[in-house]
Design a protein that fits this description.
Helix content: over 70%
Shape: globular
Structural class: mainly alpha
Distance between the termini: 10 Å
Strand content: under 5%
Largest sheet: none
C-alpha cells in the first residue's frame, strides 16, 4: 500500500462513521422526538466541537505525528458518534456530539496536511482524490444506510456495526503510516496555540465554505426533505445522500488531472455554477426524480472546490501550513456543520424548500472571489520534478 493511500484511508474511514450517522438523522430525530430546529441545535453542538478541534489541536497533532493522530481522531470520532443513538434522551447526547466534533476537526487538519506534503513529494495533485475517498466512503455508507432503514434495522445496531468495521480496518491501515516531510518552502515558524484566518486567507475561506454549505444541506437534510416534501419510501429518501455522495466522489477522484490542465480558477468557477443549478433544481422540484437529479448536480459541483481551497491555503508561505489549513478549516467547517442547523431553523419557520434557496447567494459570493485560488502550485525547491499521475 503506497504511503499516500494510507492517508486517503483516513478520509474514507471517518466518512464511513459520519455518513452512517448523518444518514440516520431522520431516525435519530424520531427517537429523541425533535423538531427540525431542535435537531439543528444538536448539529450546532457538533459544529462547536469541530471548531474547537480545528482551533486548538494543531500543536498536539504536530507532537503526536500522523499515525498516532489518525488512530486517536478516527477512532475517537467513530466511537462517540456510535454512542449517541444509545442515549435515552437528546440532552444526554449533547456532550457526545461535542466530543465527536473535536475529534472530527482534528482529523481534518491531520489528513489535509499530510495530503499536501505527499503532493509535494509526488509532484502532482492528489488533494481532490483524498477528499474523493471521503465522498466514496460517504456514498457507500449512505447506500448501506438506505438499505438498513428500508429493512427496519435499528440505528443503534447499524452504527455499532460501522464502528467495528472502522476499528478493524483502521488498525490494519493506520499502523503503516509514516510522517511525510514538510515542504521545502514551508514557513519555518512554530504553530500558535490558536489558529485564526488572516485577511489574505478570507477569500479562500469563502470559496471553500460555499460548496460545503451546499454539501451540508444535501447530506444532512436531503432524507428529511424527500420524506416531508414527497412522502417517499425510506430507501428512495436515502437516495438523495447516496446519489450526491457518489457523484461528488466521482468528481473528486477524477478532477486532479483536470485542474493540472486548466488551472484551479476556471475549474472552480464551473463547479460553483453547477452547484448553484443543482440547488435551484432541488428548491423548485415538483417530482422526486427532479430533486434527486438536483442532488446529483450539486454533488458534481461540490466535488473539488474545497480541496482546491485547502491546497491553496497549504501553499501559502506567510505562516506554517498547518496554521493556514487549520484557520481555513475553522471557517469552512463551521459553515459545513453550523450551516445545516441554521438551514433547519429556516426549514422549520419558512419551509424546507426555501432552505435550499438560501444557499444560492453564498455560492454567488464565492464566484466573485475565485481569484484567491493560485493558478499554479507553489515552488517546491529541492523536491522531485512533477511526474505523471499513477496513484
Amino acid at each position: 500500500m503506497k504511503p499516500h493511500h494510507r492517508i486517503f484511508f483516513i478520509q474514507f474511514a471517518v466518512a464511513l462513521s459520519v455518513g452512517a450517522f448523518l444518514s440516520r438523522l431522520p431516525d435519530l430525530q424520531r427517537k429523541f422526538n425533535l423538531a427540525e430546529g431542535e435537531l439543528g441545535l444538536l448539529l450546532a453542538v457538533l459544529s462547536l466541537g469541530v471548531l474547537c478541534g480545528l482551533t486548538f489541536s494543531v500543536r498536539l497533532i504536530e507532537r503526536l505525528g500522523a499515525r498516532r493522530t489518525a488512530f486517536v481522531t478516527v477512532f475517537g470520532a467513530s466511537l462517540f458518534l456510535a454512542l449517541i443513538p444509545w442515549m435515552p434522551s437528546a440532552s444526554l447526547a449533547v456532550p457526545l456530539f461535542f466530543i465527536a466534533g473535536i475529534f472530527t476537526g482534528a482529523f481534518e487538519i491531520n489528513a489535509n496536511i499530510e495530503t499536501d506534503r505527499h503532493e509535494a513529494l509526488l509532484g502532482y495533485r492528489i488533494m481532490s482524490r483524498a477528499h474523493g475517498m471521503w465522498s466514496l466512503g460517504f456514498c457507500l455508507t449512505a447506500l448501506v444506510a438506505a438499505v438498513m432503514r428500508q429493512a427496519a434495522v435499528s440505528i443503534e445496531l447499524h452504527i455499532i456495526i460501522t464502528l467495528m468495521i472502522v476499528l478493524i480496518a483502521g488498525s490494519i491501515v493506520f499502523s503503516g503510516i509514516e510522517n511525510a516531510p514538510k515542504r521545502r518552502d514551508a514557513h519555518p515558524g512554530h504553530a500558535p496555540l490558536v489558529a485564526f484566518p488572516t485577511l489574505g486567507l478570507l477569500p479562500l475561506c469563502l470559496v471553500g465554505a460555499a460548496p460545503l454549505l451546499a454539501e451540508g444541506a444535501s447530506v444532512d437534510w436531503s432524507a428529511i426533505y424527500m420524506r416531508d416534501v414527497f412522502a417517499v419510501e425510506p430507501f428512495v429518501g436515502g437516495l438523495g445522500v447516496t446519489i450526491f455522495s457518489l457523484l461528488i466522489a466521482i468528481g473528486r477522484l477524477g478532477m486532479d488531472p483536470v485542474v493540472d490542465r486548466f488551472n484551479p480558477r476556471p475549474v472552480a468557477i464551473t463547479l460553483l455554477g453547477i452547484t448553484a443549478i443543482g440547488m435551484v433544481m432541488v428548491a423548485t422540484a415538483t417530482h422526486p426524480f427532479v430533486a434527486l437529479a438536483g442532488f446529483g448536480l450539486t454533488g458534481i459541483g461540490c466535488s473539488s472546490v474545497y480541496p482546491l481551497a485547502i491546497s491553496a491555503a497549504a501553499r501559502r508561505t506567510d505562516r506554517p501550513a498547518p496554521v493556514s489549513v487549520a484557520a481555513l478549516g475553522q471557517t469552512t467547517f463551521l459553515v459545513f456543520f453550523a450551516g445545516p442547523p441554521l438551514l433547519g431553523f429556516v426549514a422549520e419557520h419558512v419551509g424546507i424548500r426555501f432552505s435550499y434557496w438560501a444557499v444560492v447567494p453564498v455560492l454567488a459570493a464565492a464566484l466573485l472571489v475565485t481569484r484567491a485560488l493560485a493558478a499554479d502550485p507553489a515552488p517546491t525547491a529541492g523536491q522531485p520534478e512533477p511526474v505523471q499521475p499513477h496513484g
